[in-house]
Structures are given as structure tokens and as C-alpha cells.
């Protein structure tokens, strides 16, 4: 067999599974169709780490609570920012006040600490969020809830897994999975691999032995309309605010790390920008059209997560479900898959496992003394590529040279934050393209934004020496 285990899909689930399994003496590969891991839905989401108090599903609540604790630990270990903002869930619609009591009772029954009901006590609410600019009679406060960068977490899991021997096969599309004696044959657009076990985390169906899997589809999809407001307010709201305005319409105000506000509006239909801003005023009255820096939409579902190991005897595990808290749940799912495989394959732990991510240096977070020290070691840290976010060439080069390094402009942006400032990349895009071309020994015309055929520069216009 080529591999003991093949993990299909490099989203947050696939990366978390690769990380957990890389601790064991087994030969593993992960197959991902994109140029980078976590390039799909793991990138566009609300980035909230839930604590298990909001859901009526006991199993999902348990997984969220375990996941939350694992993520907090992992973020500390890998230096991924974990912003424990807390969340105020409000009930501007009187009918919803009872729901807050139900959630509170559930949190108590589940032993989740740090969850409180606040009623007729303006002072307490405004102590929690002094910059709240709306009247709230009743709220459920959870001090556990946090905001993270899911992409940063996924890439950390993947880098550590790669450093410990997992073979990442990017730009390979899984086309078919077939049972063979003692395992599987997985066919991609480039290769055929054999393995003993398949862990399939690809959300879509891929057919085994040409039989369509009989997965029950939950069609309860809603639209998540996102509006990103720039950091233009004098007083930043630091807490996650959630309100169910009307049946089925939820508004979430998520403080971003750059002190802007990401407003998510869950609704049955796509909203226009004006409709979105109008609804967002229920919790974020300061939101004005001229402060909007981006809008995007995603499909949202509360379909529960299932680890389908009904075919474990033949070596097949499939993760199904499109739950809204899948990032929170991801490390708990990875642990369960690891335990299942540990028992069935009788695998042993590596003695030389290194549970550490290679250091990442953030120039803008360093003191002048530290900056001078790093510039004396590598003068590329003294060359600022992104003036909006104070990001140096040294950081860009490091993110390309690391295990599973960036190979696209988007990959560099996500890893370093370059190009995500107010200029939206107008000053630094060309610099990133040139550095990528130099580091990968490619022509700058071959550098892509994020995927095949997304080349940025189409042709030469003049024979400048540099190009
Ligand atoms: C609007 C929205 C908001 C959300 N907000 C939150 C939140 O606040 N908190 C939270 O905890 N969760 C949240 N989630 C959930 C979370 O973002 C996603 O569900 C999660 O990132 C999915 O991870 P995944 O690994 O299952 O899937 P994906 O990220 O989709 O990964 C699957 C991978 O498989 C690859 N792939 C697909 N087909 C193939 C193929 N044939 N061959 C090879 N590779 C393939 C894809 O390229 C992709 O990288 C939200 C989801 C949505 C939609």
C-alpha cells in the first residue's frame, strides 16, 4: 500500500485530523484540490468559537465544549490569536426572551460555567460592553465565547503535521474511491494511490464503487449576508453581539482583530446592502454605508455533524454535516477519529514527535530592540512591503519558505496580513508578486492570485529590465 491513511480534503477538519494522526507511527497523506489548505469555507465564516450553550442538540453542545477547550490550548501553543471577547445574546423581540432562559437552563444542566442571564440591569450590561449603543432589557452573557482566525489555526495544524511527516498533496482533485483487497484505491486527476484507510472530509459526495452514498440531505439552508465595516468608530465594540430580530433573521456583530466590525445577517433571502445596513442598525446603529469596506454572502446550515464510521471494518470514515460551529467542533472530531483508528489499527505514538510550530515573527508586534535584532540577522526584515500594516519582506519570504509555504498572492496575504490594509493591496500586490516569483524561481506572469488560471499579470507591455 502507498499509505496507511489517506485524508481527503484540507479544510479545518482535514488539517485537524492530519495534526492528530501525525503523532503516530503511520504513513499519511492528505489530498487537497486547491493551491492551499483551508482555502474553501474554512476561510469565509464568522470565526466564533462557541461554548455549547446556544444549541439544543446535546451531542453538538458536547463537541463544541470540548472543541472550544482544545482550540484555546492549540492557539496558545501555536501563537494563534485567541480573542475571548464574550458574547451578549439579546432579545429585542419580546417573544425571544424565553429562549434566553431556555439557553441559560441548558448551560447550567450541561455544567457550562461563565454563562449568565442579565435582566433589568443596564449597569451590568454596559459594564460588560461600555460602548453598546442600544437599549437592552434582557441578555444572555457567555464569557467563554471567542473569536479566532480559523485560517491561521488550520495552517498551524497543517504545518505541524507536515513537519511530522504528513505528505500534503495540493492541487489534486479526488475523482474516485474504490474498494480493493485490504483497503482502497483513490484516483485523483494526477495519480492513483492505494491505502488501508480513507478519512474523507470532503463535504461533497464522492462515490465508492460507483454507488451513490445514500446521505440524507438537510435542505434548511439560509443565506449569511456579511457586511464588513472599517475601523472608523471612536469607540470600538469588543463583545460579540447576537440578536434574533424576527423569525429566522439573526444579526451578529463580530469585533474583528483590526478593530472593525463584521456584521453577519442570517436570512431566508439575499439582502441588498441597504436592507443589510438597515437590519444591522438593531445592534450596530453606528454602521454607515460609507464605512463599508466589503460585502459577501455564504450559505449557512445547522445540519448536525456525523462521523460516519459504519464502514470502518473496510477502513472508510466519512465526516458529514455542515454545522455552523464546525470550526469549533473540528479538533473534537479529529480526536474522535484518532481514538477510533488507534483502536482499530493498533497504532503507536511517535517518540520523536515535535508538537511545535516553527516561530512566526510579526514585525509590527515587536519592540524596536527586537526589530533591530532581527534586522541584524536578516536585513529583509528592515524592508517594509505593506505600509498599511507594517509588514516586512522578511515575513513574506518566511511564509513562502515554511513547510506548506504560500505559493499564491492570496496565500501570502492570509499568512502575513499583507495587502489587507486600507489600500487593499494597491501598493503591495506587485511587490508580493515579485517576491513570490523570485522565491519560487518563476516568471512573474505565472504567479496566480489563488487558483489555477487566476494569473494577475497577463503580458509584458514594455521591455523593462526588471520584468
Ligand atoms: C456562513 C458560515 C459561517 C460560519 N461561521 C462559523 C463560526 O462562526 N464558527 C464555527 O465554529 N464555524 C463556522 N462555520 C463553519 C465552518 O466555517 C465550516 O463549516 C468549516 O470551515 C468547514 O470545514 P471543512 O473542513 O469541513 O470543509 P471545507 O473548508 O470546505 O474543506 C473541504 C476541503 O475539501 C477540498 N475538496 C473538495 N472537493 C475535493 C476533491 N474532489 N478533491 C480534493 N479536495 C477536495 C476543498 O477544496 C476544501 O479545502 C461557518 C460556516 C458558514 C458557511
Automatic annotation (TrEMBL):
FAD dependent oxidoreductase domain span: 4-201
Gene3D superfamilies: BFD-like [2Fe-2S]-binding domain, D-Amino Acid Oxidase, subunit A, domain 2, FAD/NAD(P)-binding domain
Matches recorded under InterPro entries: BFD-like_2Fe2S-bd_dom (IPR007419), BFD-like_2Fe2S-bd_dom_sf (IPR041854), FAD-dep_OxRdtase (IPR006076), FAD/NAD-bd_sf (IPR036188), G3P_Oxidase/Oxidoreductase (IPR052745)
A Pfam family that the UniProt record links to this protein: Fer2_BFD
Residues in BFD-like [2Fe-2S]-binding domain copies: 384-437
Matching PANTHER family: GLYCEROL 3-PHOSPHATE OXIDASE (PTHR42720:SF1), GLYCEROL-3-PHOSPHATE DEHYDROGENASE (PTHR42720)
Stated name of the protein: L-2-hydroxyglutarate oxidase LhgO
Organism: Clostridium uliginosum
Phylogenetic placement of the source organism: Bacteria, Bacillati, Bacillota, Clostridia, Eubacteriales
Amino acid at each position: 500500500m502507498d499509505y496507511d491513511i489517506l485524508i481527503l480534503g484540507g479544510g479545518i477538519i482535514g488539517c485537524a485530523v492530519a495534526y492528530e494522526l501525525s503523532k503516530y507511527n503511520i504513513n499519511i497523506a492528505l489530498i487537497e484540490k486547491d493551491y492551499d489548505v483551508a482555502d474553501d469555507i474554512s476561510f469565509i465564516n464568522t470565526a466564533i468559537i462557541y461554548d455549547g450553550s446556544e444549541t439544543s442538540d446535546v451531542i453538538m453542545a458536547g463537541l463544541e465544549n470540548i472543541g472550544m477547550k482544545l482550540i484555546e490550548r492549540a492557539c496558545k501553543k501555536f501563537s494563534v490569536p485567541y480573542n475571548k471577547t464574550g458574547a451578549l445574546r439579546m432579545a429585542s423581540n419580546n417573544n425571544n426572551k424565553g429562549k434566553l432562559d431556555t439557553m441559560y437552563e441548558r448551560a447550567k444542566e450541561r455544567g457550562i460555567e461563565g454563562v449568565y442571564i442579565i435582566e433589568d440591569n443596564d449597569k451590568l450590561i454596559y459594564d460588560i460592553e461600555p460602548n453598546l449603543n442600544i437599549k437592552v432589557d434582557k441578555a444572555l452573557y457567555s464569557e467563554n465565547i471567542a473569536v479566532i482566525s480559523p485560517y491561521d489555526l488550520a495552517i498551524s495544524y497543517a504545518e505541524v503535521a507536515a513537519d511530522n511527516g504528513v505528505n500534503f498533496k495540493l492541487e489534486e482533485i479526488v475523482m474516485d474511491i474504490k474498494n480493493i483487497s485490504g483497503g482502497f484505491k483513490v484516483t485523483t486527476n494526477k495519480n492513483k494511490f492505494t491505502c488501508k484507510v480513507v478519512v474523507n472530509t470532503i463535504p461533497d459526495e464522492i462515490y465508492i464503487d460507483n454507488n451513490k452514498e445514500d446521505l440524507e440531505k438537510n435542505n434548511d439552508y439560509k443565506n449569511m449576508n456579511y457586511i464588513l465595516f472599517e475601523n472608523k468608530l471612536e469607540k470600538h465594540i469588543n463583545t460579540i453581539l447576537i440578536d434574533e430580530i424576527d423569525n429566522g433573521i439573526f444579526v451578529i456583530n463580530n469585533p474583528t482583530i483590526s478593530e472593525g466590525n463584521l456584521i453577519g445577517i442570517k436570512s431566508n433571502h439575499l439582502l441588498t446592502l441597504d436592507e443589510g445596513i438597515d437590519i444591522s442598525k438593531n445592534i450596530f446603529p453606528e454602521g454607515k454605508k460609507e464605512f463599508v469596506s466589503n460585502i459577501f454572502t455564504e450559505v449557512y446550515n445547522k445540519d448536525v455533524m456525523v462521523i460516519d464510521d459504519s464502514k470502518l471494518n473496510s477502513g472508510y470514515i466519512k465526516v458529514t454535516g455542515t454545522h455552523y460551529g464546525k470550526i469549533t467542533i473540528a479538533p473534537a472530531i479529529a480526536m474522535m477519529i484518532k481514538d477510533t483508528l488507534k483502536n482499530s489499527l493498533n497504532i503507536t505514538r511517535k517518540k520523536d514527535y515535535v508538537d511545535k510550530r516553527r516561530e512566526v515573527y510579526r514585525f509590527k508586534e515587536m519592540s524596536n530592540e527586537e526589530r533591530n535584532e532581527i534586522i541584524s540577522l536578516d536585513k529583509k526584515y528592515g524592508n517594509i512591503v505593506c505600509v498599511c500594516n507594517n509588514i516586512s519582506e522578511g515575513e513574506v519570504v518566511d511564509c513562502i519558505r515554511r513547510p506548506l509555504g504560500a505559493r499564491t498572492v492570496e496565500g501570502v496575504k492570509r499568512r502575513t496580513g499583507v495587502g489587507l490594509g486600507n489600500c487593499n493591496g494597491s501598493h503591495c500586490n506587485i511587490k508580493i508578486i515579485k517576491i513570490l516569483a523570485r522565491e519560487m524561481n518563476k516568471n512573474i506572469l505565472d504567479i496566480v492570485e489563488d487558483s489555477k488560471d487566476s494569473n494577475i499579470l497577463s503580458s509584458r507591455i514594455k521591455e523593462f529590465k526588471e520584468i
